[in-house]
Write a structure and sequence with these properties.
The longest helix has 25 residues, at 466-490. The chain has helices at 2-21, 24-27, 51-60, 74-83, 96-104, 119-124, 127-132, 163-169, 177-188, 234-247, 260-268, 282-292, 333-343, 346-354, 375-380, 392-402, 407-418, 420-423, 443-459, 466-490, and strands spanning 36-40, 64-68, 90-92, 134-135, 138-139, 142-145, 157-162, 219-222, 225-228, 274-278, 298-300, 313-315, 320-325, 361-363, 369-371, 426-428. The protein has two domains: 25-150 and 319-402, Periplasmic binding protein-like II (D-Maltodextrin-Binding Protein, domain 2, 3-Layer(aba) Sandwich), CATH 3.40.190.10; 157-315 and 408-432, Periplasmic binding protein-like II (D-Maltodextrin-Binding Protein, domain 2), CATH 3.40.190.10. By secondary structure, the protein is an alpha+beta fold. The N and C termini lie far apart (52 Å). Helix 3 runs antiparallel to helix 14, helix 10 crosses helix 19 and helix 19 packs antiparallel against helix 20. Helices cover 43% and strands 12% of the residues.
Length: 496
């Protein structure tokens, strides 16, 4: 009997060793590698002919046929793809709440059972990423955390100013809300139909301005609780301030209908003296601005001081740069995971993300990388969208090179993230660290309702006091449940 027990124990140990030594490569079906189908986020290049894609095909042996999501209506398109069982082997796109909605619906592959065979991929997923995409003990997506610097994320959005117009007018950088209003009034005197400030409706909560009212983020900490801007009393004061600017003609009268392309056109042609932009938007307007406004000088509005001395600008604490998942309909799971694992080889990952030293970038005496353009932009400018797993610390280092790919990128990002006028007052949106709750399924629609309400108030369809009625409706239509879930989570939250 003892011999049988000993033999059984030996067999278990041998089996454990065999499993531990098994790699995803050993599990790939024999025969030719299939052509994989991928759906990626929108880019300004065709992934199918992109140099980084060609490199990956040569390095891994896998050919991938790419489709991309549209620039607008992304959420709806992705919902249609998943609900309609449109075939893709893997997808890079979506938000935390949307992807976890797919997971709850049973539409995604559980990766937990596979990670023991993909050690590089397993190691690339940090605890925060793992917990965010776990549901009923299954892991349903590979979250790639936003790059972090000095222990925090980055300020991405700001009000860009035409500094050359400011010099022409003899005005300096605003410090207070009234200074900002005065600057816009000065811009209004430029004539030639120049718009003091242009933006889209999605930018109704102006960066650097909301912080002067104590609401720099969508969710803010008050009395040790997370409070959404949608129900914060300070939002009424903020909206009154912006409504007054709009009524005075200092904000683009077409902002409610503007698309991003309209803002880019007005900014790059000099028809707007200020615009709400992301640092990466220069990919869309930069070349036109250089051609049409070669003497333009750009500055960035730092956080303004409010009447109560408040001053802040929000940034993305936590959150995800990209999200990758495998639909349940995938017929090539072993091949897909083998492809993901191969892409995380140290040399392959570095080469497809930032290219080769001496060809795509140089390294200075301080060890800092600098892009060689135009080849870096042309061959690696969109490669970040192709990630299907990403060691956060390694990628954050590579990202420092990527943010230098255009001088305009670096000028905007470094000002917003490396100068004291911004960093001293940068406040992270802690709610970004929260997992997806059942109540989170309403969050996108609640955000849209709030944005639309703010636009109507500023544009004059509604009055500021109408926000009180909206707040009650917001709470009844899922907002209260969302607040409860966020604050129950916040009780035990420890920032990574």
């Amino acid at each position: 009997m003892k011999r049988i027990a000993v033999l059984a124990l030996v067999l278990v140990m041998l089996l454990s060793v065999a499993i531990a030594e098994t790699n995803i490569t050993d599990m790939v079906p024999a025969g030719e590698k299939p052509v994989l189908r991928a759906l990626l986020i929108n880019a300004n290049a065709d992934y199918n002919t992109y140099p980084a894609a060609k490199y990956l095909e040569e390095a891994t042996g896998y050919k991938v046929e790419y489709d991309m999501l549209p620039k607008s209506g992304t959420e709806d398109k992705l919902n249609m793809v998943i609900s309609g069982n449109e075939y893709y082997d893997f997808v890079v796109g979506g938000s935390l709440d949307q992807v976890m909605g797919f997971a709850r619906a049973g539409a995604l592959v559980d990766l937990n059972n596979w990670l023991q065979y993909t050690p590089r991929l397993d190691a690339a997923i940090n605890d925060y990423e793992r917990s965010s995409f776990t549901y009923n003990e299954g892991l349903y997506a590979i979250g790639m955390q936003n790059p972090a610097f000095d222990g925090r994320g980055s300020v991405n959005t700001c009000i860009f100013l035409r500094a050359d117009y400011m010099e022409q007018l003899g005005v300096g950088m605003p410090d207070t809300l009234e200074d900002f209003a005065d600057l816009l009034r000065a811009f209004a005197t430029l004539g030639d139909g120049i718009i003091p400030l242009t933006m889209t409706s999605s930018n109704i909560l102006l960066p650097a301005v909301t912080g002067a009212f104590g609401i720099p983020n969508a969710w803010n900490i008050q009395d040790e609780k997370l409070v959404p801007a949608a129900i914060d009393p300070a939002t009424k004061e903020y909206l009154q301030f912006v409504k007054d600017l709009y009524t005075e003609g200092l904000i683009d009268q077409e902002f409610a209908a503007n698309q991003s392309a309209n803002v880019y056109e007005k900014w790059s042609t000099g028809k707007a003296a200020a615009a709400v932009l992301n640092y990466w938007d220069c990919d869309s307007y930069g070349d036109a601005m250089i051609e049409l406004q070669p003497d333009a000088v750009v500055a960035y509005l730092p956080p303004l001081e409010g009447e109560n001395g408040q001053r802040a600008i929000g940034y993305n604490a936590g959150g995800f740069d990209r999200i990758c998942f495998i639909p349940k309909t995938c017929k090539n799971i072993e091949h897909v995971l083998n492809y993901f694992e191969m892409k995380l080889d140290e040399d392959i990952f570095r080469t497809y993300i930032i290219g080769e030293e001496g060809i795509h970038y140089t390294v200075d005496e301080n060890g800092d990388r600098w892009p060689i353009n135009p080849i870096f932009v042309n061959e690696r400018g969109n490669s970040t969208n192709m990630r299907t797993g990403s060691p956060s610390a390694v990628y954050s280092e590579y990202w420092k090179l990527r943010v230098k790919k255009r001088p305009e990128y670096w000028d905007a990002w470094s000002t917003m993230n490396m100068t004291e006028a911004f960093t001293k007052y940068a406040v992270g949106n802690i709610a970004n660290y929260a997992p997806s709750f059942d109540s989170s399924l309403n969050q996108s629609s609640l955000n849209t309702l709030f944005q639309n309400e703010c636009v109507k108030i500023v544009a004059g369809t509604l009055e500021v006091d109408d926000l009180d009625v909206f707040t009650d409706e917001w709470l009844k239509n899922g907002g209260q449940a969302l607040m409860d879930d966020y604050n129950n989570w916040f009780l035990t939250f420890e920032q990574p």
